[in-house]
Design brief:
Shape: globular
Structural class: alpha/beta
Number of domains: 1
Distance between the termini: 16 Å
Strand content: 15-25%
Order of helices and strands: EHEHEHEEHEEHEHHHEEEHEH
Oligomer: single chain
Helix content: 40-55%
CATH architecture: Alpha-Beta Barrel
Number of strands: 12
CATH class: Alpha Beta
Number of helices: 10
Bound molecules: zinc ion
CATH topology: TIM Barrel
Radius of gyration: 17 Å
């Protein structure tokens, strides 16, 4: 798979905003991917999904999906735990009907519990979700995301371990989050070290099938504060793009900057210039 660039949601410049017009606009902008933003709710019905699938196919736009924010696979409240699992399942079902390739989600909060115990809880819950999807014949990639706040479960190492231990799970690497977590991961060497770790632990396959989020980011000692445009941030995106190129990665890069298409198009341009 080549490296495809796209927007987190319907491009801002889309007239008559809906998912299908968003897919067409992504194509007009020269982008090859779009993420279905189910972050507030899964906003495409089963009935509508085949039309979305058709539009994506006709326009050669690869669809990824961001599952609802309200998922916490380490919730101490069993009703919330169950509701989170169902949100993830529902996002995966609709994304699959839309012909989607991959589903990113925010796995959990630590709630001040030991990290290894939280890992156990998340693995158990995610394994249960994956078993249901497998039984349904749904093979869409499920991607726990590298998270940007220190209170959030989701270091690069934790996400790699889930990917090793559960079938059909691979990381969503948010390079803005990775940087915001402790201020590191912003030099060429550090970006290369992250990609080398992915290759060592998960194999070349993981690098050929990356699901990446990228944005400029404001952060403090607790990690992520908010997203901003790449050029307004300290994110060293040129060296990041250089690392992507040198590792010959493939997959989908989704821009989560406030101006989603501007940064997606800029990164695509950098990638093409450097080839
Ligand atoms: Zn996210």
């Amino acid at each position: 798979m080549n490296l495809l660039f796209g927007t987190a949601g319907i491009p801002l410049s889309t007239e008559n905003r809906n998912t299908i017009n968003g897919i067409k606009q992504a194509r007009k902008l020269g982008l090859d991917a779009m993420e279905l933003e189910f972050v507030q709710s899964v906003n495409i019905s089963m009935d509508r999904a085949p039309e979305v699938r058709k539009a994506a196919k006709e326009n050669s736009v690869t669809l990824t999906c961001h599952a609802p924010y309200y998922i916490n696979l380490n919730s101490l409240d069993s009703a919330k735990l169950e509701a989170g699992r169902l949100r993830l399942l529902n996002a995966a079902r609709i994304a699959n009907l839309c012909g989607g390739w991959s589903v990113a989600f925010h796995p959990a909060f630590y709630h001040k519990m030991p990290a290894d115990k939280v890992y156990e809880n998340v693995e158990k819950q995610l394994s249960a979700v994956m078993k249901i999807l497998k039984d349904e014949g749904n093979e869409i990639w499920i991607r726990p995301e590298v998270m940007g706040r220190v209170s959030q479960f989701g270091t690069l190492e934790e996400i790699i371990k889930l990917s090793q231990n559960i079938e059909n799970v691979l990381p969503c690497v948010d390079f803005g989050h990775l940087h915001a977590r402790d201020g590191k991961y912003n030099t060429y060497e550090e970006f290369c070290s992250a990609l080398a770790l992915l290759e060592k632990e998960l194999g070349r396959y993981a690098l050929d099938n990356m699901h990446i989020h990228i944005e400029g980011i404001e952060y403090n000692d607790k990690g992520e504060r908010f997203h901003k445009e790449l050029d307004d941030s300290d994110m060293n995106y040129r060296d990041l793009a250089k690392a992507w190129k040198n590792f010959k990665i493939g997959g989908v890069v989704i821009s989560e900057s406030p101006n989603i298409e501007k940064d997606a198009m800029m990164l695509k341009g950098i990638q093409e210039d450097s080839i």
